[in-house]
Amino acid sequence: MKILKIVSISLVVIYIGIVALFESLLGYYQPSDENTSIVITTYNSDQEARDRVVSRIDSEANLYVAANHWPRAWYRRALSNPNVEVTFKGKKNLYLAIPVDGIEHDRVNKDRALPLRFRILTGFPPRYFLRLEPQTEN
Q: CATH assignment of 2-134, given 2.30.110.10, 3.40.190.10, 3.60.21.10, 3.30.360.10?
C-alpha cells in the first residue's frame, strides 16, 4: 500500500511538472499563426501596457479571445480595464472586452473546441471567453 501511495504521488508531481513546463514554454515562445493569432494589449491600474499573443476566434460575426491556460494575467487585466487594443496583421484597433457566459460561452466553446491532448498538457484549466467589440477613437 505504501509503494502505491509513493507511485501515485510521484505521478501527480511529474504531471504537474509537465503542465508547468508546457505552460512556461508557451508563455515564453508565444507561438503565433499570421492568420489566427492576434496581439491583445491590456492595461493595469497604472495604465502600463502588456502584450499577449492569443488566438482569434470568429463566431457568428463576432470576435472572441479565450483564456485557455492557467497563467491568465492578461485576462484579469482585461476584466478590470476592458479597453484593449488588438493588433492583427499589422493593424491596431481599439476594442471593449466583454466577458462571455451562459449560452454564448457554450456556443463559442463548441465552435472552437480544444483537443483532449491540449487540455491534458495544460492541466485542464477552466476556459473563459471575451467578446471584443470594436470601438471608435474619440
A: 2.30.110.10
